[in-house]
Amino acid sequence: EVVATQIRSEPAGYESLDLAVAQPERWSPTSPQTYRVTVRLLDGAGEVVDEVCQPVGFRAVTASGEQILLNEEPLPMRGLVDQDYWPETDWTSPDPARVEQQLTWVRDAGFTIIRYHLKVPTQHYLEVADRLGLMIWLDVPNFRDFTALAAGEARALLEEMADQLGHHPCVVAWSVINESWGLDLADPNQRTWLTNTVHWLRRRPERWLVVDNSPCEPNGHVDTDLEDYHFYAALPDHQDRWDRFLTAFTTGDWPTYEEGIQAPLRPKVVSELGNWGLPSVGPPTTNPRTQRGPSWYNAMAVPAGVVDRFHDIHLDLVFGDYAALAEASQRLQGEALRYAVSSLRRESVGYVLTELSDVYWEANGLLDQWRRPKAGLAPLVRINGNIAVLLHPRRRAYWGGEQVRCDSSTVGAPVGSRVELELVRDGAAAVRPVDDILRVPHVDAGEQATLRASLTGPGTSGVLATDEVTLTLFPRPEGQPSVDTTLGTPDPAIARALSAQGWRADDRAHAQGIWLVPRLDSAAMRHLRGGGTVVLLAGDDEALGPLQWSFPPVSFRSTSGFVTDWLLRTSWLRRDGAFAHIPGGPLLGWELEGLIPEFGVAGLFASEYRHHVHSGSTIGWLHHPIATLFDRRVGPGHLIVCTWRLTDPDAGAAPARSAVLQGVVTLAMTLRGVAGAR
Fold this sequence. Notes:
Elements: E1 35-42, E2 48-56, E3 61-64, E4 67-70, E5 73-74, E6 78-82, H1 96-108, E7 113-116, H2 123-132, E8 135-139, H3 148-165, E9 171-178, H4 188-203, E10 209-214, E11 227-230, H5 239-251, E12 268-272, H6 306-312, H7 316-319, H8 322-346, E13 350-353, H9 378-382, E14 388-393, E15 397-399, E16 406-411, E17 418-424, E18 447-456, E19 463-474, E20 486-488, H10 492-501, E21 504-506, E22 514-517, H11 522-529, E23 533-537, E24 555-558, H12 562-566, E25 569-573, E26 599-602, H13 608-611, E27 613-619, E28 623-634, E29 637-642, H14 654-672
Parallel strand pairs: 6-7, 6-13, 7-8, 8-9, 9-10, 11-12, 12-13, 15-19, 20-21, 22-23, 23-29
Antiparallel strand pairs: 1-2, 3-4, 4-5, 14-16, 17-18, 18-19, 24-26, 25-27, 27-28, 28-29
């Protein structure tokens, strides 16, 4: 249907045409209505000499207080970063149909916006987004250093992008600078250039949302329509760090603006966050980018040789093969994203996950480089729609018979909806609340169960949304341990932890010869050289003592900091032998949240990982292995080094802490040859 026409006779040079559409249908994600503007040049005989067609749309996007409005309606921002690189062709898709396929997957997974990162998208990419109803947030490619030439070229590029891409209704937002790359916002001249550029974009007739600098620590905003911020936290390892950030961000206590600037009320968006999930080995490619990493991460992000490193430290004895590790990593990634998104949606904060697909050395994509969905995305997709029910368990590990402590919230639920909880166990009837109290059943051995929430609509509308989390159940210790023995420790905190588990603790040597100490001091070394067994529950990097001068020399290495929050930290436990009673896979999940070691011992022989390392960790593509629980002969004695947080009563859930400590003591007794140790 033609809705407007205009004819200009004898055109000469530049012509401006104005077309008015009466009561246009507005473009939105739920109704992506577009119009096509066609301009034809006719000769004197009325024949078409040239023709140009472009899609356009009508929509209004604004920031109003803490809300983003699209066509005067609240706009949910559930997004993904897309760097749009392809292993076969680098810059553009090898097949236009694959762009359609991946953006259709994005829409069907519940996302509403793509932050197109530091590249100029093709017209085809934006036309697909127009048609599918996916909003686009564009980043201007950055310069390395601010100079007059760089500033001029950046402004010229921005103007060209706005002129050539601005007609697409899907484009709703722009970022001028990313993470202050190339810009020193403490410099008044550079700050002025940025604010002037923001004001120029705002004056454009397309009326976009404009972000000055999409920041991360330590930089911030100057003048922006969105209060966005980038924050990465390895989950579940650093769940407490993520929780503290989100609380501060939502209450305005997290600094997001440059010093001296009063933060106005703006919609809040965490515009970069994510966790890695190692990909399975993909199709062969000759692209060298897929095997090398960036220089600024000291080789930890180099993919080349990942399978060799897997075998070098004998992870095949833990996972079976690399494919099993990759799948477990992806499933943990899905659970991590579910946790982050559920907490963001509870606080009504928008989000843009990093990222749509893996990019060379970056493995935080929901799809791998070849656009294959990773395993374990179901927990995220379940809660990513317009209507969602969200579970917020206060902990994930329980003694049998305990009351489940869990909050829930909803998004977009119709009036009259209700939330129903149940605990689902393999081979057993579902457990439901009694008098609004849900208790986990008593169990004879550790097991995992699914806590499920169902949002049921009013009347006969049925189930509108579900959410699930895994709980780990442990049998409550009854009486004394099966082995009647006394353990020695000079440390009150260790003594309390042992007593809580039912062990008798003494402060001197004893017949069984097992000491538990916080530091490897001279007394502990004498006990080892006398044939005793020492368990070092190391609390800091001073605990190793003389072991640092052993052969091979060993040292503590921290696994905390930005690198291990942005890169992958693969932490694992061999759940066999002394630790067979702890349910779950080798990767450390939420059942052990709060206990996961923050440092470990580097420098062990690779051969020690075959039989003597019981838990460990790597960084990125399985680089820099450390042992977080291992045993070693020291003369006639046995030494066990453990960096788990087992003596802090506030670390993790008591059932999980007790189970790991039980495993450590059982390992010591097994090495000591204590009959009946288990």
